[in-house]
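Subject: Interface between my chains keeps coming out wrong

I've been trying for a while to get a sensible model of this assembly. When I model each chain on its own everything looks fine, but I need the whole thing in one frame so I can look at the contacts. Pasting all components below, labels as-is. Any help appreciated, I'm running out of ideas.
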Amino acid sequence: MSFSLSDDQQQLAESVNRFLTDKYAFDQRVRIRAGEGGWSRQIWAQFAELGWLALPIAEDHGGLGGSSVDLALMMEGFGRALLVEPYISTIVLGAETVARADPERAADLLPAIAEGQKLLALAHGEPTSRFDQHRVAATATRDGEGWRLDGTKAVVLHGDCADTVIVTARTSGEVADRDGISLFLVPSDAAGLTRRAYPTIDGLQGADISLDGVTLGPEALLGPVGDGGAVIEAVLDRACVAVSAEAVGAMAATVDLTTDYLKTRTQFGKPLASFQVLQHRAVEMLSEAEFARALCYRSAGAMDTATGPARSRAASAIKAEVGRAGKQVGEEAVQLHGGMGMTEEMAVGHYFKRLRLIDVSFGNAAHHLRRFQALG
Amino acid sequence: MEFTLSPQDEAFRQEVRAFLAEKLPADIAEKTASGFRLAKEDHVRWQKILHERGWMAPNWPVEHGGTGWTPMQKHVFDEECALAGAPMVIPFGVTMVAPVIMKFGNDVQKQRFLPRILASDDWWCQGYSEPGSGSDLASLRTKAVRDGDHYIVNGQKTWTTLAQHADWMFTLVRTGDSGKPQQGISFLLIDMTSPGISVHPITTIDGGVEINSVFLEDVRVPVENRVGEEDQGWTYAKYLLGHERTSIAAVGRSKAQLRKLKSIARSELADGRPLIEDSDYARRLAQIELDLLSLESLVLRTLYAESEGRPVGAEPSFLKIKGTQVQQNLTDLLMEAIGPYAAPFQPEAFRDEGWNEAPVGPDYAPALAPLYFNWRKASIYGGSNEIQKNIIAKMVLGL
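Reply #2:
Try treating it as a single job with all components included. I did that and got this:
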């Protein structure tokens, strides 16, 4: 039951927070982002040692077999620290896709991921697919024993640094069909694969990836031909909950920063905290964060107990909730910080940016509210 | 998203459902579902049925007649009752004054009052607010002066819900004038048949009469009817507020209203199509459903925290604000659903004594606009939503 945490879960949350408070304060994060690649391989190695990369990976695949609630606890901690390492791309999206698409090969492929030796990215979205999970125009055609891939993949999170890119491509059906999507493991240095890398607004890294006649051997196919649609649905449902948990952490940190600011900033001879209109706005921010957290852990629990439409509805519920709430909390935080909230040097604006960018990842609030309703 | 209930909880749900199917009187369920007002007799009849089954007081300790249910069982029970159209249990006795008597009352008071509350033999009302004391409750002025074994009480209480039915009123009165306003308040139990009490109805904007002014003129109250110490009543009143915690969120009731809303929105037409397919209406409906899901999640988290003995902080305030917002948004969409048929004022159509004529417009219409106007009370009572924000600002944010 996701309404009360076990001792182990409490310890996990505490150790994540302790580590990040120590190693990932806002000024340390500024230095990490300025380094090569925009994130820290040293931190990544420490995550591997701590078992945090292995946490959500199944034990059969070299992981620790943590639950979705465990993952959410960790993501909440990452959200508080505004983590920029490629955890979502490699673990939440990459490892999960491999495990669901092809459990047998996952046992070979995922131990290296859990040990921090390899990075993954999921290249699924396309320039015109927006939030439609099944709209895949990229094609995979038979090429002798192997495959030939053509198409364009848009805004691939940490697509710049992944060693292997998991590409969705159509092997049959119409462009928006659920059936006929297949998954391929593509080495990032494959001939015909080009990456246009960029930093994202919220301080992470991304890339647009073109596939122009990329030829691959038969081993590139991940899982059965044409069955990728259901895998992607399940992976993205879990990813929705994971980034929602990150948003819950980011909202909580944003509320803390804003409250502290109200207590210290003086205007008209008294602290801002003494003005009731500002108190009530801070309370509304806190309320948004609290309700989002309560729903988030409920949805996280559902990721392990529900299947099909019930699982998807639980994911859409929390994603719609944090999309709306995150926007409100972020906008209000900047407003309550006044001019200082507009500056690069203050942390608050960085939380705001991450919260807004989480909303446009994997479907925004409007999209998920519609999906929540349609699945009801 | 429904819960995946454990097999035990699912069995419990079936048990509650079977009980309701068998024991909930059809006439009461129909009135509740249609938004009609219930007579005192309806409430008492239903509460006595609950008592007979031993399910009247889920929030009480077992030794006093509680059920010993887990948080999830309590939640399932509330939800099933609301969905079946069972009336809300009137909270003033069983939910509000009883925990205060258990905690601060003496043995005589416990034996005298608790069994009658459990059996719904006494109807209680709450004498807190006064004409000059709304959100600033501690400024209350109703005075109790000691005269031998009695207090002589003079003053006026207002907004007293269903006082017209009440046998007893638990009351905050001023027994001392020194120090802070919160000091010098005592908690008295007053027999409503005492000479000097008069109850005057207040008609609200929906045309209904559920609240009253209660005037007290030289009312003699035996000192033995004071709960706890003299001048310590504020402490007991605060304890009482803490006992409303999660029920004020009214999740089960809102689920029932949502179901009703969907059914009406399916039968009402907008531009020749079912209203529920109108994209703007549908989006607002979906948002309410999502808000209700968040609300329920925090209710459950709070119930679990309580049952595990973890401290509960400002959750009741969060739940009060969000719960009443959800309720009010539901009544808003309900009124909007019937379009121009919100207009006819037909209080006869949903009064408790019944009405034999056909209403103007659809059967479900007459109660909906009054419901909307009536429910504006929710963000005002029980500590207004602004007061709740003050509480959270102080308690959690330290502002």
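Reply #3:
Confirming on my end. The longest strand of chain A covers residues 146-157.
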